[in-house]
Design brief:
Layout (H helix, E strand, L loop, with lengths): L1 H13 L3 H14 L4 H13 L3 H14 L4 H13 L8 H14 L5 H13 L3 H17 L3 H20 L6
Helix pairs in contact: 1-2, 1-3, 2-3, 3-4, 4-5, 5-6, 5-7, 6-7, 7-8, 8-9
Amino acid sequence: DPVARVRLGSVLARQNKLDAAGAQLERALELRPDDIDGLRFLGEVRAIQRRDADAVALYERTLRLTPNDLDLALRLAAVLADSRDTAVRNGPRATALAEQAVQATRRQDVRALEVLAVALGSSGRFAEAAATAREAAALARSRGESRRADALEYRAVAYDYAAQQGFVPQR
């Protein structure tokens, strides 16, 4: 039963049994290839495992089935922006996805702004990344998320430094 396998895979993932979760989710997708939850959960498992190419493929597939899913678009953008694999990293695509989410949330979602800052940094647009990280920090602080705001402000300083040094991201 694919639904039961997706549920089991989700439970196993929450228990940090990622290999077992992945196996259950893969089996579920063999039985029902377009299962949105199965695709999403397996994408999350692969992202956690830093199997970025697999995560991107799964997120892209899921996004084709649910094109208005902002959370999924942000997950995809985060992997594209932050991948250690230069064949997977795609700052411009990550930026485009994150910008859509930021616009859709009227710049009122801390996570969307945070992912946009990372994507801009991945694209070498450090001054914009710093400004966006500061915007996210201010929003987080206004919502009582002081630790998150501090981390975002620290990231903004790092982006400022990268801009001053003329740093160029690897591609």
